[in-house]
Amino acid sequence: EAGVVQSPRYKIIEKKQPVAFWCNPISGHNTLYWYRQNLGQGPELLIRYENEEAVDDSQLPKDRFSAERLKGVDSTLKIQPAELGDSAVYLCASSPRGGEQFFGPGTRLTVL
Amino acid sequence: DQQVKQNSPSLSVQEGRISILNCDYTNSMFDYFLWYKKYPAEGPTFLISISSIKDKNEDGRFTVFLNKSAKHLSLHIVPSQPGDSAVYFCAASANFGNEKLTFGTGTRLTIIP
Question: In this model, does residue A99 exceed pLDDT 90?
Fold first, then answer.
């Protein structure tokens, strides 16, 4: 069974530039999560989807971050414009319905 | 406010001995707990979980213990192997895993051959 796929794996951009991350969850998993992990910290939830619906986006900085999950499968997370403090690893995870979450390898973003 | 705490940033254990990783939580709504293992440049990998209706769960060399009154859980690895060297994250959720996971800051485990 294929795991959670994320791209790109690494991204370096200048501040104020836009950036987008893509996630393809495990087939059949209804729930999709985006987390941000800062250096030396655990992952922190940005947004959770149940199928196409964002059911928890309370931690998403909506002034610059946006996300979508069209057709309830793939998801894209966008930052526009990026700031220096956005440098982190962005993790996507999926689960069939709550419980154990399966994580992708993450995208390491560096904002210069 | 750190609701899930892993107070030991690092731990070194001799190969073959027992590794004990600890985790404390403050939110009494948490009723489902998980341990994840993370290698460099990879995403966290699920290891083992426990719900609040149990106080122990075993899977091979890994055992998780939950002390609800103390709001404390621990992960025991025995015997420890070099491949166990990684960062271990404790995570907690409410509603038996149907809510978001709240992670601790991780403990870096090093197994000494």
Answer: no
